[in-house]
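Record pair follows.
FIRST:
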Amino acid sequence: MNRSGRVRPHLPWFILIGAVVLLPVIIPSKYVIGVMFLVGIYGVLAISLGILIGHAGLFSLAQPTWFGVGAYVAGVLAVREITPPWIGIIMGALFVALISYSMGAPLLRLRGHYLACATFGLLIIGEIAFTQLSDITGGNTGLLDIPPLSINGFVFRNVFHYYFLSWALCIGSLWFYSNLIHSRVGRAIRSSHDSETASKSMGINVPRYRLQLFVLTSFVTGLAGGVFCFYLRFAAPSIFSFALLVELILMIIIGGIGSLWGYLLGSLVIIWLGELINVYLGKVLPVMTGEVEAVFFGVLIIFVLIFMPRGLSGWVEQLFRLGKRTYEQVRRNPA
């Protein structure tokens, strides 16, 4: 294999890392970098949920709950000065993994919409717990006075610091999941999604692999929750509610189910469309409500499902194929 053949599979990674590094240099706007921080964090959530739904066929809707638990545990440990902030993030993610393991063992025996309903119940329970445990979480007022994140003396003081942290977590998650789905475990999970009976007949321990994936995605989501908590320096139940789940599902559908890169693309599109709607449509409408944004995204989903059933990632892939064929034809038949 020549050098270009070895480089080509890694080209998207080089482009992504280069874009993340150069963006603050090209556009040193705190607003833009703040929005891109959200793209990175929500990208982690979308990829984690997407790999469950699109690759494993597990319709788990508890991702906002894991996100919230990770945030609250990290925030409470920091506010009460029990652990340093960075250890609090890890402790929060481990606590999320422990809960998801204990809950996943019985829940993953369910399939399809039964699993979706059960995990949706977890989402509702999480919302209620975040509100009612006011002595710990601050209730509806929220968890206040969260100190800034610090790691070995380095304090994350501005949005640029958190931007690089969120994208390090996002790219790391994307790389980890990409390797996972192409590993022996990933092939077993994908085969069980296609036919669970056939997978079991081949000796694959489907429940074990599904539980492992369920716990891994919840752990990564808990890490994202801890980072998000220190970025806002605030946590409230409304942040980790059903509205977040709707946003994540939008990212997965619009990005393209079954594509890890598509989930990240969906996060980029949905976050920026939300910002554009609030900024520009708010100038047209005297009262910009959440219902207007919901209608807009509802129409967008219908459009994507009808005209781009594979999502934006499928559309981008078709464009690349078309460009490749055009390039090859030009090379064979030069003018």
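SECOND:
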Amino acid sequence: MERNSERTTCLVVGGGPAGMVLGLLLARGGVEVTVLEKHGDFLRDFRGDTVHASTLTLMDELGLGPAFDQVPHQDVDKIEAMLDGGRQAVVADLKRLPGPNKRVAMVPQWDFLDLLADAGRLEPAFTLRMNTEVTGITKSGNRVTGVKYRERVDGHEGEIAADLVVAADGRSSILRDAVNLPVHSFGAPMDVWWFRLPRNGDEPVVGGAGRFSAGSAMVLIPRGDYFQCAFLIRKGTDQQLRAEGVERFRERVVTLVPWLADRVDHITSMDDAKLLDVKLDRLRRWHVDGLLCIGDAAHAMSPVGGVGINLAVQDAVAAARLLAKPLRQGVVTSAALAKVRRRRLFPTVVIQTLQRIIHRVFLGRKLGSTETVSATGTPFLLGLAQKLPFLQVVPAYVIAIGPLPEHAPQFARRKPQTIVRS
């Protein structure tokens, strides 16, 4: 089969939030950048659909705030816990956040990625290639010099050389596996079933809400006329629980949240529950000569707090700021790549440590219990946050902004601009 060779300055593998943000920023910084996405579009369900306050601020800095506001979305300004007896308790009050963006926007990820793609197409240095699957790397000695690819439409194969390859291809990154970067896995006590249920306008849940009880847990995320539901199960029990059948699953949902009883028939089979295999890990080193990992390729996050996208986007912003000049000069050293990890290691460790604590102290115990749902009262810290509402800003800040938020480099900033949607 014919194989041809091409070249670019920076090759970004993976058209998710991290890859698209990095591609856009580098192109605005005068770097020739090509983003490869293996699918023909961004239409995949049950991906992370949260755009956090710090990312909304980034959109404003890039001049994309007005265009983002035109994308259909729902704003969440508080996160609650559903308690026994139908009571609600505020866990995080985003209205108390500093800055202009006091919310998390729930937007289908494909709409967000389409917006970034349309903004990227305005930059002469930006190229997005869909239906292009990376199959391996090319090397010269110990240095990664590019990738091998296959076009999924016609099977055409080729190679693209680059001064830098960036792996933004997620937790199952083919690139990080290809260079054998050492990874430390922390494990997780649960997996997640994602599914949808209809939502009425007068529901008791208006922001994101979780229901946690002995042996069971579920999170409801309002998405217009439906809830995106996350049902937590013990790690490794997917096949066992599926074998119990859809009726038993409906019973579990109603036991947790009784007011959903009038709509669980919309779960027609266990195929409606899509499994997320939860991972929590971190590379010990994020780069080799010629290749850098960011986002989930560098540190797979738990869905706790929904912060994975936020961290991945901030990785991309830091990488663009630190690497645009070396890329323009054609000299990207390992020392320059190491700066990205040094910059982003602190927030990654902080968030993963908090997730590990929640896994071990709370979720692991809850999901490991065989007790039935009962009136367990209000947990101490949650009760304290209701008596002292100013405490609700702490989880709000961690979730919606995070430690060490990144801001757009000056070269990438624009006045508010009109984006013609493709």
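COMMENT: The longest strand covers residues 3-13.
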